[in-house]
C-alpha cells in the first residue's frame, strides 16, 4: 500500500457522487475541495475507479510529502493480540491473532484503552465453537474483526453512527451491519460484545442482554471503574474476568448457560 494523490474534476453534482464512492471504496486520508476539483490522498495499491462526467488524474507524490502515516505502528494489545493498519507490515515474530483495521475512518484502531480492554477480555474467555457474534457499537469493526479472525461464521454489528456502519461493512463485507442499537440487530447470538461509554452501556444494557443467547461469552467494556458495580448488578452471574486498560474496565462473562 502506498499514498496516492488523485485529482477529480467535473461539475459539482458529479464530483459529489464520485467523492461519496471514493470515501466508501478507498481508504481516503485527506480531501481538499476546490471549485470544479477535489484532490484526494488515498492509501491503496492503485486507483482504478471511473465516474460519469468526472476526469480522474493521478498526481505525482513529492518524495518529501508527509502522508501522516509514517508514524503508524502495529499495536501489541497483549502477548497474543496485534492490531495494525493495512499499510504497516506484520512483525515477523508475532504469533497470535492479528486484526488489520485502517486508522481514521471510525473509532477503534486499537489505541484506545476501552478497545484494548475489550479485546483482552474477549481473548480471556474466548472458546472454540462460537458460531454467531454481535458487536454493539462497532465503530471501525475492530472487535467484530477479532471474532472473524477467530473463525466465527455469522457476525452481526450495529452502531448509531452511520460512518461507523460504513467502516465496518467495508472491513467485514460478509457481516450483517445495521444502523441503530442492539434492538436493531434482529438476532440472538452466542457471543456479544459492547464497548460503549458507561452511561451508554447502562442505557443499552437490556437490549444488549436480549441479543445474547448465553452459549458463548459476553463482554462489556468502556466503563470507568466507578461505573462497573451498577452494570455488574444487572448482569446474571459473575464475571469470569475483569480487565482494566488505562481508565477503562471490561467485564467478561464466560457463558450464561
Ligand atoms: C467506544 S466506541 C467503540 C468502537 C469499537 N467497538 C471499539 O471497541 O473500538 C463506541 C461506539 O458505539 C457507538 N454507540 C454509542 N451508543 C450506542 C448504542 N446505544 N448503540 C449502538 N452503538 C452505540 C458509538 O457511535 C461508537 O462508534
What are the key terms here?
2 domains, Alpha-Beta Plaits, 26% helix, 14 strands, 6 helices, Rossmann fold, four-stranded antiparallel sheet, 257 residues, 31% strand
Commentary on this structure:
This protein has 2 domains: 2-59, Alpha-Beta Plaits (2-Layer Sandwich), CATH 3.30.70; 104-253, Rossmann fold (3-Layer(aba) Sandwich). The mean pLDDT is 92. Helices cover 26% and strands 31% of the residues. The longest helix is centred in the first third of the chain and has 14 residues, at 12-25. The N and C termini lie far apart (45 Å). Helix 5 packs parallel to helix 6. The strands form 3 sheets. A 7-stranded mixed β-sheet has the order 10-9-8-11-12-14-13, sandwiched between helices. It has a 4-stranded antiparallel β-sheet with strand order 2-3-1-4, with helices on one face. A 3-stranded mixed β-sheet has the order 5-6-7. The protein has helices spanning 12-25, 113-125, 142-149, 162-171, 198-211, 228-234, and strands at residues 2-10, 27-34, 37-44, 54-59, 75-78, 81-84, 97-100, 132-136, 154-159, 176-179, 191-195, 218-223, 241-245, 248-253. With 257 residues, it is of the alpha/beta class.
Amino acid at each position: 500500500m502506498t499514498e496516492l494523490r488523485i485529482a477529480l474534476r467535473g461539475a459539482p453534482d458529479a464530483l459529489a457522487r464520485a467523492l461519496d464512492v471514493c470515501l466508501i471504496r478507498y481508504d481516503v486520508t485527506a480531501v481538499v475541495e476546490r471549485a470544479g476539483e477535489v484532490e484526494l490522498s488515498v492509501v491503496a495499491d492503485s486507483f482504478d475507479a471511473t465516474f460519469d462526467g468526472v476526469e480522474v488524474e493521478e498526481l505525482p507524490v513529492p518524495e518529501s510529502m508527509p502522508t501522516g502515516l509514517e508514524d503508524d505502528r502495529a499495536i501489541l494489545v497483549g502477548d497474543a493480540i496485534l492490531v495494525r493498519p493495512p499499510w504497516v507490515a506484520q512483525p515477523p515474530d508475532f504469533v497470535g491473532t492479528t486484526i488489520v483495521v485502517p486508522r481514521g475512518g471510525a473509532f477503534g484502531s486499537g489505541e484506545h484503552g476501552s478497545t484494548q480492554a475489550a479485546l483482552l477480555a474477549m481473548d480471556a474467555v474466548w472458546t472454540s465453537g462460537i458460531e454467531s457474534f454481535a458487536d454493539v457499537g462497532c465503530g471501525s469493526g475492530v472487535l467484530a474483526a477479532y471474532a472473524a479472525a477467530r473463525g466465527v461464521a455469522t457476525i452481526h454489528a450495529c452502531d448509531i453512527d452511520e460512518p461507523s456502519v460504513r467502516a465496518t461493512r467495508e472491513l467485514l463485507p460478509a457481516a450483517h451491519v445495521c444502523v441503530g442499537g442492539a434492538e436493531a440487530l434482529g438476532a440472538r447470538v452466542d457471543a456479544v460484545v459492547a464497548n460503549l461509554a458507561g452511561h451508554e452501556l447502562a442505557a443499552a444494557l437490556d437490549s444488549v442482554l436480549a441479543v445474547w443467547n448465553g452459549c458463548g461469552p459476553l463482554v462489556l467494556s468502556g466503563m470507568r471503574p466507578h461505573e462497573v458495580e451498577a452494570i455488574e448488578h444487572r448482569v446474571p452471574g459473575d464475571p469470569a474476568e475483569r480487565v482494566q486498560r488505562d481508565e477503562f474496565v471490561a467485564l467478561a462473562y464466560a457463558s450464561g448457560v
